[in-house]
Amino acid sequence: MAIACPDCATLQTIPPLPPWSVARCRVCGLALERTAGRTIDGALAFALSALLLLVPANWLPLMTVSFAGAARQSVLGSGVWVLWQQGWPLLSIQIAFLVLILPFVQFGLLTGVLLALRLGYRPGWLGRAFRWATKLAPWAMPDVFLLGCVVGYSRVVAMLPARVGPGGWCLAGAALFSLVTEATLDPRRVWRMIAPEHAVPAGPVLSCRSCDMVLPMEREDRPCPRCDARLRAREPDSLTRTMALVAAGFLLYGPANLYPMTNTFTFEGTVHHTIYSGIEQLVQARLWPLAVLIFCTSIAIPFLKLAGLTWLILSVRRASRAALLARTRLHRFIEKIGRWSNIDVFTIAVFAPLIQFGDLASSQAGQGANAFLLVVMLTMLASITFDPRLMWDLAGRRNG
Ligand SMILES: [Zn+2]
Ligand SMILES: [Zn+2]
Asked: 381 C-alpha to center of ligand 2: Å?
């Protein structure tokens, strides 16, 4: 029963694995299957817990700040609302999707699929629903938002008395369960339960990039029988699209770093905070681990992603065969790490609704935040659009 490695396109058959073990691609080392336990019950329990905790995490107050006898509370949606009112619709809508809408959609789909499988139902929409749950996983960011809250809280508490509310604890629970769900979910087993794989068909083959099923080449441009994704031998125009996204990312990288992320107005004057001066502020408050975290996620990782993707594009254009394994690993790393760059932007969404004390002190997002979030989104899209199998094709390997 064959699948094709999504990174290097090598056809392989995975033997039945014992619990808690990993099957790696024999060519590129990608973990093709990770088993956790003997059933899907664990993943179902954790996904359902995350979904249920998201409800109070959205409704109950995240944090309360007091200043000059007044108190301000924030719930998950208030950052989105305040940014909208301050005239940043694009920023506000993107954060609403990443933090409010997609976590519900992703955990709703995942819980629905696992529950249906557990109860023995096999409706036609299962494959499509699981494909979307997998596709949306990097874009649903309760865990990244939680780290944003931790940084935001540390910044606020250095100046004003602040308290974490019940919504904050529920968010922490939801984020924790989302990480445990990822660790205990065995997607390969779920795909097999939705529809088993077949032996390698005779003649030329292609593989589905969503569920890795191997199918005859004649099926190109038709929907995958298991997950309903459109079948393509290789991602169409992968290089051109990735190049366009990376170029747009480079253009916005400068403004993201130069323009202020936030402008804070107090009776003493206006303070503009760029990413860099935000890090300086954390260093002055002796919050070293957070300063290192923001430096890595806001400055180092976006640059590494843009430079790394440029290298990947150039290497394919030059038909290079060097460092194939290193380039494949770099692409995997860029794809995994990308979402964590949002911590600093989320800090603003936590911060902005709390620091609203009229003329005494108020905080607004700046142009930098808008540009920065776009850099993160563009580089995430670019790493998804880049098809790593193109690098292996050039090495003259047969493929699926
Ligand atoms: Zn591989
Ligand atoms: Zn498929």
From this structure: 20
- Centre of ligand 1 to C-alpha 28, Å, is 4
Q: What is the predicted pLDDT for the residue at 397?
A: 57
Packing angle of the helix pair 343-354, 367-385 (nearest 10 deg): 150
CA 8 to centroid of ligand 1, rounded, Å: 4
The ligand placed nearest to the CA atom of residue 325 is 1
C-alpha 12 to ligand 1 mean position (Å): 9
Query: Is 142 part of any domain?
Result: yes
How far is Cα 331 from Cα 375, in angstroms, rounded to an integer? 17
The alpha carbon of 60 and the centre of ligand 1 are apart by a number of angstroms equal to: 45
Q: Which domain holds residue 275?
A: 39-194+234-394
Q: What is the pLDDT at residue 247?
A: 97
Identify the burial level of 363 via C-beta atoms within 10 angstroms of its C-beta, where 0-12 means exposed, 13-18 middle and 19 or more buried: buried
Indicate whether 185 and 203 sit together in one domain: no
Q: Which residues of the chain have pLDDT under 70?
A: 396-400
pTM of the predicted model as reported, rounded to 2 decimal places? 0.91
Calculate helix-pair angle for 41-59, 142-157, nearest 10 degrees.
40
Cα–ligand 2 centroid distance for 217 (angstroms): 14
The ligand with the least distance to the CA atom of 389 is 1
Q: For residue 224, what are the CA distances in angstroms to 2, 207, 351?
A: 15, 9, 45
